[in-house]
Amino acid sequence: MKQTLQSLLTFGREELKRHNNPEPELDAKYLLLEAFRTDMAHFLMNRSRELPDNQEIREMTSRYREMIRKRAMRIPLQQILGSQEFMGFSFWVNRHVLIPRQDTETLVELVLTEHPGQGERILDLCTGSGCIAISLALKGKYGTITAVDLSPEALKVAAKNCGLLLGGKGGKEDRTDPEVELRHGDLFYALKPGEDSFDLLVSNPPYIPTGVIEGLEPEVRDFEPRMALDGSSDGLEFYRRIALEGKTFLKKGAALYLEIGYDQGAAVQEILEDGGFSNIRIIRDSAGLERVVTALWSKAG
Ligand code: GLN
User: CA 248 to CA 75: how far, in whole Å?
Assistant: First the structure.
């Protein structure tokens, strides 16, 4: 049987269907375009044309089959392709970081709207791929952005994204994007009291209750880093720690923006109230779900 791009797509789609992939047609198409380093327009024009039997095509075909095999195992598409769009930028991802979610754009957009930037010093906790810190650096007018993660492997991904999107540590000479400074450590333990003090604290911490993780889609449950998801038995541990430990590092009047799970608004509000934060608001995402909690630290820090 002659081999065409269409026959390869059909093969991939059927293979993914057999393994209960939720988007077999779309995923097979993305993988085909990636393996054959081509685009949709080329695919549509040439899909029924017989592919020549040469070394290059054989290599691309075997790469495609290998990618389909991985996706059939439910490895996330983004980990196979190595990237995910976030805020209009392409972030490099691998299995050591949470894949940037559209949900999290709600947080970034809110920060950009409420604090477009006047040289503020920003702290991003649990930075992962660096998607929040780097998007803020690219779109706002801030001072330095300090991005912390406990995972050295995640920091390597964040560093790579700084290089790809900000043009290297500190940005290239001809760019004015603020520096994203990466630090390794367990939340505030990465910082120096008295020296590090911030105007804005942003974070998408792990917030899934431990017991809920087993019921998630295999892509998330089996292939995204557990430490980026697991927020302890009730999912709220990181909010408690941020409310308790954060004060030492916040300037008077500093603002806090935290991503939350859809059912955590009231609980996080209470944690922040108990911690002495004020002006607490719960913001919904485009799907109408509670997604971000914001608050102010109005006391002298
Ligand atoms: N929003 C992610 C999910 O639903 C979880 C992110 C997190 O724990 N910070 O998988």
Answer: 41
